[in-house]
Design brief:
By secondary structure, the chain is α/β, with parallel strands linked by helices. It has helices at about 60-70, 90-95, 95-105, 125, 145-150, 155-170, 190-200, 215-230, 235-240, 255-265, 275-290; strands at about 5, 10, 25, 30, 55-60, 75-80, 110-115, 135-140, 175, 205-210, 210-215, 245-250. It has a single domain, classed as Aldolase class I (TIM Barrel, Alpha-Beta Barrel). A seven-stranded mixed sheet has the order 2-3-6-7-8-9-10, with helices on both faces.
Length: about 290
């Protein structure tokens, strides 16, 4: 595995970035991702990640992160996994993410993790000791066979649901990033209902969606090449319906969003960003108050 230079690991988010699940900082412990998801926006050239499908690690990154966390007077929630899934196959042996979580716990930072991997359940022992923790499993389909087509090198949706249950059973605030929803592929009413139902059955507290997929620059070309292989003729539908639009929204948006909201309300799942942020931070505050008493 290639080792690359890094001057800094911890980045303060912009003024409006903390609206994304209430994070204050971001770290990307790996560069690139091997999951092979056909829709991943991180392939876009604007992010300047060459050879995106190759995973690289950063030289002395745990030592750098330790120094940076030590120097921060303002604590907060650190986002992990936004660009590259921190629980890639190499993490099982390298344990870079696990070491980073230990540092965050030691310095009293919270964590917001995005992942498609069930490996996150390995770190329950650390996560349950931390304040302000939210774990988001990206799940796009309830169908494992379809999952294998559009997310070929990551564990099936059913394995993610099981990991979610394991986290939830330990009192860790967890839920689903139901995004992207791929037009003509995963935007069926049955899929929406099934993902929400399974989320509830596996202990999710929330489910968040953006009701479409983003396509830009070279990522659009990559996505279309995958559609040609996996769903012949579908690329032409995209070109007809969306042209070169950045946001490709789902069909029957109004109807399906209404179904989404009704199902979330039926199962008591949060679905608005501001409610999710308030809930996981309030829940952790209540836990802390219990410990203090």
């Amino acid at each position: 595995m290639q080792v690359i230079k890094a001057k800094s690991i911890l980045q303060k988010v912009g003024e409006h970035s903390n609206q994304w699940f209430g994070i204050d900082y971001n770290i990307n412990l790996y560069k690139g991702c091997s999951h092979g998801c056909i829709y991943c926006d991180s392939r876009s050239s604007c992010y300047q990640i060459d050879h995106f499908d190759e995973v690289r690690i950063k030289e002395n990154e745990i030592a750098i992160l330790n120094k940076e966390l030590q120097s921060k007077k303002k604590k907060g929630v650190v986002g992990i996994g936004a660009m590259s899934d921190t629980y890639n196959p190499f993490e099982k042996n390298l344990e870079i993410t696990r070491q980073a979580l230990k540092l965050l716990q030691f310095y009293h930072f919270g964590v917001s993790i995005d992942t498609k991997s069930d490996l996150v359940a390995r770190d329950i022992d650390i996560l349950k000791q931390m304040k302000n923790v939210i774990i988001k499993f990206t799940i796009t389909t309830a169908d494992d066979e379809l999952c294998k087509k559009i997310e070929p090198h990551v564990c099936a949706s059913s394995a993610r649901f099981k990991a979610m249950k394991a986290l939830s059973d330990e009192g860790i605030f967890t839920g689903v990033l139901f995004t992207p929803i791929l037009p003509f592929i995963t935007d069926q009413e049955d899929n929406i209902r099934n993902v929400i139902r399974l989320s509830y059955e596996h202990g999710a507290k929330f489910i968040y969606s953006m009701f479409g997929v983003t396509l830009r620059e070279n990522q659009r070309d990559y996505y279309y090449s995958q559609l040609d292989q996996l769903f012949p003729g579908l690329k032409e539908k995209y070109q007809q319906f969306f042209g070169n639009s950045y946001m490709c929204g789902i069909r029957n948006y109004s109807h399906l969003k209404r179904i989404f909201i009704q199902e979330c309300q039926k199962y008591g799942l949060l679905y608005k960003m501001e409610d999710i942020i308030a809930a996981y931070k309030e829940e952790n505050e209540q836990i802390q108050l219990t410990f203090d008493l």
